[in-house]
Amino acid sequence: MATLGPESARPPLSQLGSSPSIQTHIGSANLPPNRGLERALEEAAASGVLNISSRKLKEFPRTAANHDLTDTVEADLSKNRLADVPSEVCNLVALETLNLYHNCIRTIPDSIISLQSLTSLNISRNQLGSLPACLCGLPLRVLNASNNKLVSLPETIRQLHSLMELDISCNEITALPRHIGKLKALRELNVRRNLLCVLPEDLAELPLVKFDFSCNKVSTIPVCYRKMKQLQSLQLENNPLQSPPAQICIKGKVHIFKYLSIEACLTHCACCHGDMIGSWL
């Protein structure tokens, strides 16, 4: 912590007027209140990176029309007060990364389909009740829709062939789409803190490295999940799991997969035994 020196070390009051720091402060105090926003727009026009987060914005800056933002590839509008995705954002067709985290957005417009270069979208911590089907027409590799009010995912999510990371944690989703197994590029899936009772068997076909389904209502892990050879991180706490039982689950992934393999073997043997009995009869 800095400490004040003795009175004799302080400069005379007559010299304060010539202090560079004081002059800088006075100069910034005379700037228009929106000068910081204008500077951000100027930098975006020059660099292709638009950062206007944490500015209490309720709409896209009107003065943005005075700047050429057509080459913007990254836009950060997080921590504002936007109720909708601004139409101006949907016109930034060169966008590759869009961050709308922590706003008040309730719907996503169909015009977002114009962003055909968008590979990363963060719409977490908003007020979304659903995701539009058109969102699945984008070349997304990362989609974060956590901390919303989603009750389901569109069936068209299977069209996101390039999707590698999907975070839909902290929503109210009761079931995953039937064709989620079509997401052949998916490496990370986070469905933590939802209302899931059943895990789809299709997930076993994905090259998942991280899978978090903690804090749901899942009682059974499908035996086919033993085929998830690339899985490195599995989070499943706070579920009413019965198969595998809790005492197996707390030991970790290796023991869980061993249990599933034994279950699969027993099921296969039972089927074979039943077939043998049937043939004898």
From TrEMBL:
Q: What keywords were assigned to this record?
A: Leucine-rich repeat, Repeat
Concerning InterPro entries, the annotation shows: Leu-rich_rpt (IPR001611), Leu-rich_rpt_typical-subtyp (IPR003591), LRR_dom_sf (IPR032675), LRR_domain-containing (IPR050216)
**SUPFAM superfamilies tied to this protein:** L domain-like
Give me the Gene Ontology terms describing cellular component.
cytoplasm
| Entry-linked Gene3D superfamilies | Ribonuclease Inhibitor
Q: Positions of the region Disordered?
A: 1-34
Q: Which SMART domains match?
A: LRR_BAC, LRR_TYP
Q: Does the keyword Nucleus apply?
A: no
**Polar residues bias (residue ranges):** 15-27
Record bears the keyword Nucleotide-binding: no
What protein name applies here? Leucine rich repeats and calponin homology domain containing 1
